[in-house]
Description:
It is a single chain. The protein has 12 helices and 17 strands. About 50% of the residues are buried. Helix 4 (about 80-90) runs parallel beside helix 9 and helix 10 runs parallel beside helix 12 (about 370-390). About 35% of the residues lie in helices and about 20% in strands.
Amino acid sequence: MTSITWTNEYITPTYSRIEIALEKGNGYYVFDEEGNRYLDFTAGIGVNSLGYQHKEWLSATQSQLNLLQHTSNLFYTNPGAQLAQKLCTRTGMKHVLFVNSGAESNEVAIKVARKYGHQKDPNKHKILTLSNSFHGRTVTTLSATGQDVFHQYFDPFTEGFEFVQTNNLEDLRTKIDQSVCAIMIELVQGEGGVVPLDQTFVEAVVEVCEQNDCLLIIDEVQTGIGRTGKLFAYEHFGLKPDVVTSAKGLGNGLPIGAALLGEKVEHVLEPGDHGSTFGGNPVVAAGANVVLDTMTDNFLTQITENGDWLKEKLLALDGVESVSGLGLMIGVTFKSLSAKEVVAKAKEEGVLFLTAKEKVRLLPPLIIDEQAIDEAVNCIKNILKVEVGVS
């Protein structure tokens, strides 16, 4: 197959690819170049929130392409202005800075925190993140990532990060001091294995931030834009963050990142402090406006209900050991099969899943329905029957 042959020959091999050359998609299905159909429970790693061929999203992006594809941020454009207004209105945040990815959004958050701290005290520069976290693949966001597997080959890493053991209150209180300018957390650690934080731990993070005048940064790159049944996952915890980072699902397949800044930091960044040639691109922003408009209360409630139903059905399978996550961000462990084995078997059955450490990770388009849930669960049920003889 030409796509696979040329990819293997000419594209740098930094990905362990699945041997499928995808050609098109419709709804929550994708099709390969040979016409085989797959139920997609990956959504481009949580990106294609509205699935494929969504009519309003297509219309908005295609209409904008016919008007203006790019200007740079030296000029004003309506789609980006609308998107910023909607994000701030929906969240109560004050400003938005648009970039192109989750890693870049987190870079903005880090720069905001460092400048905020420097304005208080030049030595107030340290950022606490959590063990098992993942914040991106730039050198600095790798430095903020609390997993040793990513801290290889690219030394020296950016200084000024320290890791707190996830959900460990004692370790948190030991590592906080006046040199800390921010604490940066994911409320559900996606790449770390779909691990939600404990409410008591999150409350302690808020407390120490208030006591030490450091910023609360919530990395919502994977959890945001409806993925957990709320527009942002921090709403489940009753939080008021200083900075929220977003990407993935906001673009529905086109590259976008957004750093939302609260009242405490709305004026920290000034002209020249950061920039992005493509950030807030009008075509991407036009589509993102449709994504946000789709995130109504009824739509978000349906995500919660579908997520609960999916988890209930998975837990009813004898071969399933545990299910974690919020909304339609779900991790599954099995009693006798590895995550990689399940993903490989499911692909042969026409269903696409992801892995996250030892778990199978389910990140379907947010438009899934009863049919899609039943199809995915039945696929896993059939794999368990064949492989380990359970019902």
